[in-house]
Design brief:
It is a single chain. The protein is α/β, with parallel strands linked by helices. The chain has three domains: about 110 residues, Probable tRNA modification gtpase trme, domain 1 (Gyrase A, domain 2), CATH 3.30.1360; about 130 residues, Four Helix Bundle (Hemerythrin (Met), subunit A); about 150 residues, 3-Layer(aba) Sandwich (Rossmann fold). About 45% of the residues lie in helices and about 15% in strands. Helix 4 runs antiparallel to helix 5 and helix 6 runs antiparallel to helix 7. The chain is flat and about 80 Å long.
Length: about 425
């Protein structure tokens, strides 16, 4: 296998830059530049190539089986100037047997060498991309292997159930002293409870990863754009006294209580003969219905809009600067009630985020749903076709394959190029 190298830290000028090497010649390559330190001990070394001092760097070596990739690896912690990094990369490229790593190749080798499962790889990608505290925590949970540990426990229960059922097939012509039906049924029922619970948390986990959407809806000239600007802390939307100024959906992304939230300023909801405004209203209704939460900004408490609030939605009165002493009112113009509104949004979204499971990707959700479908089929066959245990065994094997695919053990080769293409070169 080739020995690969790449800049692992960000490009550009920095205090420190890190170059990683991985593969059978990683230690030999370092030895050509300096006296290698002991394994897993940082050593300050001058990197010298053909009499030229390249830099003074901290050098760390990792043995095969004790590194991120599972291969013999090394790190060169250089001074972070672009000239130093460029020269060291140039020298490494000139060494026989070394080549520049491809995008995500270090992590791909970690997967292939059993250091990470596929769910951990996806968690690592999310950790690198994390922008909010909730995203960081969720990615770390997945990267820690929590999902893999749960899947392994579920797989062992499936193995036990399948073994019991297949024993009845193998000894169909003999007297089996024990009826396996109660234990198999209990295993299937217990697994369904756990897998359905994990599946139920997938929507919240996806929202933490991709961000929640909060739509501000109301009649024309209710102050929606002004409120959006106040929440965003900048002039994100054009405001005017002319009703119907906002025709398209304006999006502002922000961090609320550690959650990634996209605020949507929508067109004012009213019947209109203006074709363009009518299109804007239709788009506003569509986005508002799809949003995770809606903030209804009303001119008065009795106002009826073209959209009905759902149980968790916020209904507030606008232009609080003109309503002294009125509860649940906000003003984007003066900022009155804005802190309260942000706290209310945070409370509702945090409550939903609390139910998040470990399924952070659509691929994982589909695999889990396939496993659940297999168990539900097995459950039906246990009742309807007790004389055909082969059907139950086939269902259990299908569920097992779905769980194994979730961790990248089978049937995922066609996904790997797409997954690793999102990684940077040095990861």
């Amino acid at each position: 296998m080739d020995t690969i190298f790449a800049l692992a830290s960000a490009r550009g000028k920095a205090g420190v830059a890190v170059i990683r090497l991985s593969g059978p010649m990683a230690h030999d390559a370092v030895a050509k530049l300096c006296l290698p330190p002991r394994l897993r001990q940082a050593g300050l070394r001058r990197l010298i190539w053909q009499g030229e001092v390249l830099d003074e760097a901290l050098v760390v070596l990792f043995a095969q089986g004790a590194s991120f990739t599972g291969e013999a690896s090394a790190e060169l912690q250089l001074h972070g100037s672009t000239a130093v990094v460029a020269r060291v990369l140039q020298v490494l490229a000139a060494l026989d047997g070394l080549r520049m790593a491809e995008a995500g190749e270090f992590t791909r080798r970690a997967l292939e060498n059993g250091r990470l499962d596929l769910s951990q790889v996806e968690g690592l990608a999310d950790l690198i991309d994390a922008e909010t505290e909730a995203q960081r925590k969720q990615a770390l949970r997945v990267l820690s292997g929590a999902l893999g540990q749960r899947v392994e426990a579920w797989r062992l229960d499936l193995v036990r159930a399948a073994a019991l059922i297949e024993a009845t097939i193998d000894f169909a012509d003999e007297d089996v002293p024990l009826d396996v039906t109660p234990e198999v049924t209990a295993l299937i029922d217990g697994l369904l409870v756990q897998l359905r619970a994990e599946l139920a948390g997938a929507v919240a986990a996806e929202r933490i990863r991709d961000g929640f959407e909060v739509a501000i809806v109301g009649a024309p000239n209710a102050g929606k754009s002004t409120l959006l600007n106040a929440l965003a802390g900048r002039e994100a939307a054009i405001t005017s006294e002319i009703a119907g100024t906002t025709r398209d959906v304006i999006e502002v992304r922000m961090d609320i209580a550690g959650l990634s939230v996209t605020l949507l300023d929508t067109a004012g909801l009213r019947d209109s003969t203006d074709f363009i405004e009518r299109l804007g209203v239709e788009r506003a209704l569509d986005r508002a219905r799809q949003a995770d939460l809606r903030v209804f900004l009303q001119a008065d408490a009795d106002e009826v809009l073209m959209l009905t609030p759902e149980v968790d939605d916020l209904v507030v009165l606008g232009k609080a600067d003109m309503r002294e002493g009125v509860a649940r009112a906000v003003s984007g113009k003066t900022g009155a009630g804005v802190d309260w509104l942000i706290a209310e949004i945070a409370e509702r979204l945090s409550g939903r985020a609390a139910s998040a499971g470990l399924l952070i990707r659509e691929r994982q959700r589909i695999a889990m749903q396939t496993a659940v479908s297999g168990l539900e089929s097995a459950q039906r066959h246990m009742v309807q076709a007790q004389d055909l245990p082969e059907l139950v065994a086939a269902d259990l094997r299908a569920s097992m394959r779905a769980l194994e695919a979730m961790l990248g053990r089978i049937d995922v080769e066609n996904l790997l190029d797409e997954i690793f293409s999102s990684f940077c070169i040095g990861k």
